[in-house]
Amino acid sequence: MRLFANTNFPFLRYRRIGIGVSLLLVAAGFVSMIWGPGLKLGIDFSGGTQLTLKFKGEPDLSRVRQALEALKLGEVTIQRFDEPERHEFLVRIQNPGEEGDFSKVMAEALDREFHRTVPGKLPLHTLGTEALRDALAEADPDGVGGGLDARRQHYEPQASAVLQLRKELGILQGPEDLDRVAALSPAVRAYLKSNSFFGEFTILAAEAVGPLVGKDLRNKATQAVGFSILGMLLYIAFRFHLPYGIGAVVAVFHDVFLTLGALSVTQREINLPTIAALLTLVGYSVNDTVVIFDRIRERLRLERGKPLVELMDKAINQTLSRTVITSGLTLLVVIALFIFGGDVINTFAFVLLVGIIVGTYSSIYVASPVALFFTEFFAKKKASRARS
Fold first, then answer.
1. Whole-model pTM?
2. Which of 49, 52, 37 is nearest to 94 (CA)?
């Protein structure tokens, strides 16, 4: 299938304009990253604690913020998930001043703010399986008797069943939800209904990363991107010539810096999935560039003596149909992920969306012009040495 046949667009005639536009965009990204808002690092890299909360109804977010800011652990950010009717939020405290998991402290602060617990009642909105099992073993509503270990073994399946239901529902609304747990004995069900407290929120997930771990992850992420670019340079320099390796690596740097600039301007969070997207972008960008370079090498063998600019334009035109079809279809998939994929992969999709656009552009207006420049530069240098 070919969308463009026998085209003859003079792409490289406008290479100086293309390079100029790229330099301006990269400079704007640097300004945003250094003197502007900068890159917004997630807790993976900056360190901190993150809770995923689900409320029964729409909460007063100012109360959530005030309760957590009173802990004086660091900057508090609150993010709502896509579906407002689910009442789910990501709550983060970034850059804590010391190592540690602050999820328990955060949960206790929110409990004090939103709940008026009754002494002796079991908080079914936050209890873990082991804590609920031990509470049931202590009360022993089934009258199992015997040692503590035997009672624990008896009540563990029932505790697990209750928390499995909480996981499926997101939050237990009240005692009536316990009727849906078939594994509960009548005595345990009656005991939990009369001795449990059903809070206004529950913790769906908790994640904590210390500052030292965050710094280590940040260094390793930088090394991963750097080594991948170096590997591309060596591969292309070996497969083609050094000027083409330089052109490909400059294009990759261009794509990565433009994408980071877009993340800085939009203040999207950089975390481990974002780094995975950047590595995907590196591979995608180089793949597109290699296709064009391979066609240029083929033209050089078939049409010796013709100007390199002409051969490059011809190679780009011959691969134009492939570029449009491949990039266009990939772009459609990424747009679907960006719009319908939800908050969890939205930034991942955003990186790929920007990367596909700038990667396709850079293969034509960055990699090829740079390869042309260095080919001519090395040829002139070689000729100069031969004359001398």
1. 0.71
2. 49
